[in-house]
Amino acid sequence: MSAASLRNTTGIMLAGSDALVGSLPSLLDPLCEADRRRVLAIGREEVLQAGKHVWRQGDLQNGIYLIEEGRIRSYYAAPSGREVTLAYWFAGNFVGGPDLFGTGAHVWSSVAVERSQVTFLPGAALRALALQSASIAVALLDALAFKARCYSAMAQMLGTRSVTERLHRLLVFLSKIYGSQQGREIVIGIPFTHGDLANLIGSTRQWVTVQLSRMQARGVIRYHRGLIVILNLRALDLEVV
C-alpha cells in the first residue's frame, strides 16, 4: 500500500465499526494555510529508526508528534510485562495525549515500528496557538475526541466480545480498510506477525497461531510470513454479527 493511500486512513486498532476508524483527516487538514504554517513553525522534525521509542509509559509529557512517514505503535504495558496494542498510527495522525499541552505522565508507550519521520510540537507553544486561534483549538479537540472514541470502542470490544470474535472482527476490519481485492481473494497489504495480532486483541501469540491454522484449514484465510489473504470474508462476517 502506498504512502498516499495510507495518509487517507486513520490507523489499525480493535473496533466494532469500520466507519469509526476510516474517516479522520490529518490534524492539519481542517486548518487554513496560515494556521497550518503557524502550527508547523513551532515544530521540530525528527527521524525515528525502527524500534526507537517516541516515549515510554511514565515519561513526562511535553507535547505531541505529527507522523509524516512511517508507522507508530501505541501500547500499554501491564506490571506483569504483558503488552496490549492500542493502535498503529500512520502518516497524517499524531501520537500524544490525552494531555496535548504537555502535563502529567504518559499512560502508555509509543514506538516506531519502521523508520518514521515525525514533527514534534511542544505542548506550551501548542497551547499558546490554541488560545490564539479557535480553528486550531477545534482541530485539536476533534482529533482528541476521535481518539477517545477509538479507545472507547476498543474497551467495549475487549469487555463484550470473546477473543475469537475479536480476532475475526480484526481480520474483517483489516480486509475492508487495508485489503486489496485480487480476484476472489482479499490481500491485506500490511504484514502482521502472530504476536502483533495477539497484542491487538488481548490474547497470546500461541492462541492466535492455533486459530489462524484452523481458519487456514477451513479455507477462510491463507497466512504466510506475515501476509494475510482473506479467502472467505463472508465466513468471518457471519461470526462477528
UniProtKB/TrEMBL annotation:
GO CC annotation, single: cytosol
Molecular function GO terms recorded: DNA binding; DNA-binding transcription factor activity
Keyword flag Transcription: yes
UniProt keyword Iron, yes or no: no
Keyword terms: DNA-binding, Transcription, Transcription regulation
Coiled-coil region(s): none
Domain Cyclic nucleotide-binding: 27-96
Domain of life of the native organism: Bacteria
Domain HTH crp-type: start-end pairs: 161-234
One Pfam family recorded for the sequence: cNMP_binding
UniProt-recorded name of the protein: Crp/Fnr family transcriptional regulator
Native species: Bradyrhizobium archetypum
